[in-house]
Design goal:
CATH superfamily of the largest domain: Succinyl-CoA synthetase domains
Shape: globular
Helix content: 25-40%
Low-confidence stretches: 48-53, 57-67
Order of helices and strands: HEHEEEHEEEHEHHEEEHEEHEHEHEHEH
Number of helices: 12
Number of domains: 3
CATH class of the largest domain: Alpha Beta
CATH architecture of the largest domain: 3-Layer(aba) Sandwich
Length: 405
């Protein structure tokens, strides 16, 4: 589960990481949205002077430092995808009226946006990058930090890898104080700033561990003129397998760009929306990704990625129902079942076709455990059972292009 920025910052704030004062408004009819955003911005900008107190942990664990903010507010679309600034989904507003207009412009630009975050603008001296993730190869936690923040870390790693500092953490030992201080020194800090950076890093690590997080990232982490550290953004990805013990995180419609993606999430079916012609309905995440690449290689385009293997292999009907919500030309079903039995998936597919009566062609390649029975089930239902994945892909691409098959 990917949390939206305002949700992640709420977690940060509770952990004692300073965040800008902010208000959330929901997308609505243009005039209502403009008025609500304008009122929220006016409230944020109403404090006398430029220096304002950052919102922080009520226990005061963030130290009570005064953060300095510039006049105006940032108006941010709340979406889980990256590149918001380049897409025009983050706008700087100098007045409440500008903020109201910016909120409307964002929703008009990207109608899938349902939540807008308005927050105080930070007058920073520099921007840092800080993240914690899991290094599966070493079975350890990996902290990445850089004095160059506010940029895509992948690009930075490629163009200037020495600008990224790395710390490997033994999950059984936990993050040690000498590691956080050493990381601060490696970034060129000294004195009180090292202590503050170490505190933020330690707090972020606690967020990472306590919430079963796959990734905890702050980019940028602002350093203000007085040495305060403020989270300018948040990225928290919660392990879906842990949601039963993390009840504070709920799957909500605003976290997804389309109704179909939301419905798939509620069902526990991995689903990604695209805008091509071929709906993928595959069993096995690696196989689904491979089929996606094969479709692209053959000159086709993908309408959606859907993976109904593993624990979902009995959900063929629901998977097909989700695929049919797309404006695709064909549904391509490719499976390779070991634990997920091919005959059970074939029975589900036949039942789904009989019940849903799809309005587009279906191409199938069902392989794996009991595939002989699966092939027979499909043939008895009048569905041609293909046994070669590449042939199935070529046929689906041809159908999508309107060619004879």
């Amino acid at each position: 589960m990917r949390l939206l920025e305002y949700q992640g910052k709420a977690v940060f704030k509770e952990a004692g990481i300073m965040v800008p004062a902010a208000r959330v408004v929901r997308a609505s009819e243009n005039q209502a949205l403009r008025d609500e955003a304008c009122a929220a911005a006016r409230e944020l900008m109403s404090a006398a002077g430029i220096g304002r107190q950052a919102e922080q942990d009520p226990t005061g664990s963030s130290g009570g430092e005064t953060a300095w903010f510039a006049p105006g507010v940032m108006v941010k679309a709340q979406v889980t995808s990256g590149g918001r600034g380049k897409a025009g989904l983050i706008v700087r507003a100098e007045s409440p009226e500008d903020a109201g207009q910016a909120a409307v412009a964002i929703v008009e630009r990207e109608p899938s946006v349902r939540v807008i975050l308005l927050e105080q603008m930070v007058d920073s001296a520099c921007e840092l990058y800080l993240s914690i993730s899991t290094d599966a190869g070493s079975a350890r936690h990996l902290i990445l930090a850089s004095a160059v923040g506010g940029v895509e870390i992948e690009t930075l790693a490629e163009q200037n890898p020495t600008a990224i500092q790395r710390v490997s953490v033994d999950p059984f030992m936990g993050l040690q104080p000498y590691q956080t201080r050493g990381l601060g020194y490696d970034l060129g800090f000294s004195g009180e700033l090292v202590k503050r950076f170490a505190q933020v890093t330690s707090s972020l690590y606690q967020v990472f561990r306590a919430n079963d997080t796959e990734l905890a990232e702050i980019n940028p982490l602002f350093v203000t003129q007085d040495g305060s550290l403020i989270a300018g953004d948040s990225k928290l990805i919660i392990d879906d397998n842990s949601l039963n013990r993390q009840p504070q995180f709920e799957v909500t419609r605003e976290q997804y760009g389309t109704d179909t993606e939301y419905e798939a999430a509620l069902e526990g079916i991995p689903y990604v929306q695209f805008d091509g012609d071929i709906s993928l309905m595959c069993a096995g995440a690696g196989l689904t990704t491979t089929v996606y690449d094969l479709v692209q290689f053959e000159g086709g385009t993908v309408a959606n990625y859907l993976e109904f293997g593993g624990p979902n292999y009995r959900k063929a009907r629901r998977a097909m129902e989700l695929c049919l919500k797309n404006r695709s030309s064909v549904i391509l079903i490719v499976t390779f079942g070991t634990i997920a039995r091919a005959d059970v998936m074939a029975e589900g597919i036949v039942g789904a076709i009989a019940e849903l009566k799809p309005d587009r062609p279906i191409v199938t390649c069902i392989r794996g455990t009991n595939e002989e029975a699966a092939t027979e089930t499909l043939a008895d239902a009048g569905i041609e059972p293909l046994l070669d994945t590449e042939e199935a892909v070529r046929r689906a691409v041809a159908i999508a292009k309107g060619e004879q098959v």
